[in-house]
Amino acid sequence: MSNVIKELEQRGYIEQVTDLENLKKYISDKKIPFYIGIDPTADSLHIGHYVSLMVAAYMQRAGHTPIILVGGGTAQIGDPSGKTDMRKMLTKEDLDKNINGIKKQIEKFVSFEGENAAKIVNNADWLSDLKYIEFMKEIGTKFSVNRMLAAECYKNRLETGLTFFEMGYMLLQSYDFLHLYETEGVRLEMGGNDQWSNIIGGVELVRKLGHDDAYGLTFKLLTTREGKKMGKTEKGALWLDAEKTSPYEFYQYWRNIDDQEVRNVMMLLTFIPADEVIKLTSVEGAEMNNAKKIAAYEITKLVHGEEEAKKAEEAAEALFGKGVSSENMPTTKIEADSTIVEAIVLAGFAQSKGQAKTLVQQGGITLDDEKITDISFKITADMLDKEPVLRKGKKGFCKLTK
Q1: H/E element holding 258?
Q2: Percent of the chain's residues with pLDDT above 90
Q3: If you write DSSP's letter for every residue of 262-331 in order, what string do you get?
Q4: Exactly one of 97, 232, 293, 353 is catalytic; which is it?
């Protein structure tokens, strides 16, 4: 069996590993169950979950078995990592709805059939019945408070206030690894680099209880060349749910990334062989547009299916090549005689009327082919009958309807 860790290294996924050389040896001739965790805080996954699902897909293709842990238990606390405030507590009804929503999206990345079929587990099934005294006696005694407070996930919260409720998150996530080690044969936990402290906690817990074959691995977060997380748009997060982010908007996001980001995106978010990615992205200037089109198409196809990817591609080509004509374009309903400023805000091109006015005054807004420079410009009923296209610069566009 080829060692998938080498492939993950080559594609740039791996950030940190608890014991890299021994992990490579361990899985070079073994098919092991591994797990990644997802807290169901919304009824859809967003682009921040994408990398972890791709890693799971590559692992499964190499013969290993994905265990996708949906944190119905831990989501009721909320991971304090990277947060400045305590997360809003969700009801059981909210959690059940969210879990059902994200299960459908996970199925697009990993297979739930075959010899190494993926499996979804919910940690509420074992965390909800824990008895506090017994848990703290068995698990809590294995953790040093001093070491926990030095971890990044807690250290950043000490100034704003860290509740004991949240502090228990690491213990519960660590217990998840132990539980899956004992019940599913899991030997490897993987997650984003912001989960490093929690993952180390799980590995050390398993090892303290007498097992030497537990490993942890984190992968790089998807970031821009400036180091900011990718997947943020003017309308908010880039969701994998077509109702929250349309396939067209999703496609356009990847079509418009910076040239310097294309290789990393293709390596982390597609199944295109690494040598082909290098070849496609070893160009400059206008030639990079072909790589962007391929990246946008492949990513959209994986999330929304081939038919939607083709529609998005055709819509983009129609808009940029032969004039505007596409029912697949993002659409915003507005009332007749709304001002251009109101339309800009409703379309998500600005977060406030002040920002919208600035866009108009700087010449960044057009309606069909006409540049709009008057902030009091009104969009009449006759205009709306023709469903004009509102554009922001070269990359933002939205069809206006009644």
Answers
A1: none
A2: 49
A3: HHHHHHHH--S-HHHHHHHHS--GGGHHHHHHHHHHHHHHHHH-HHHHHHHHHHHHIIIII----TTS-E
A4: 232
d(CA 345, CA 114): 48
Told to judge if 18 belongs to the known catalytic residues of this protein, a careful annotator would answer no
Digit-coded pLDDT (tens) for 161-195: 777 777 788 899 999 999 999 999 999 999 998 88
Cβ burial 95-120 (10 Å sphere, 16+ → b, else e):
beebbebbeebbeebbeeeeebebeb
All CATH 3.10.290.10 domain ranges of the chain, comma separated, are 331-401
The boundaries of every CATH 3.40.50.620 domain in the chain are 4-219
Which amino acid makes up residue 235? K
- How far apart are alpha carbons 174 and 191 in whole angstroms? 13
Is 103 catalytic? The answer is no
pTM of the complete model: 0.77
- For this structure, is 373 an active site residue? no
Considering the domain 331-401 in this protein, what is its CATH number? 3.10.290.10
Give the residue range(s) of CATH 1.10.240.10 domains in the chain. 232-322
CATH 3.40.47.10 is right for the domain spanning 4-219 = no
Let me know: does 299 contact 270? Beta carbons within 8 Å. yes
Query: Which CATH fold would you assign to the domain 232-322?
Result: Tyrosyl-Transfer RNA Synthetase (1.10.240)
**323-338 pLDDT per residue, tens:** 444 556 678 888 888 9
- The yes-or-no answer on residue 194 being catalytic is yes
Give dist(CA 376, CA 365) in Å, integer: 13
Choose, from 65, 173, 195, 300, the residue flagged as catalytic.
173
Evaluate whether 398 touches 233 at the Cβ level (below 8 Å): no
Q: Is the pLDDT of residue 76 over 80?
A: no
Of residues 223 and 181, more confidently modeled: 181
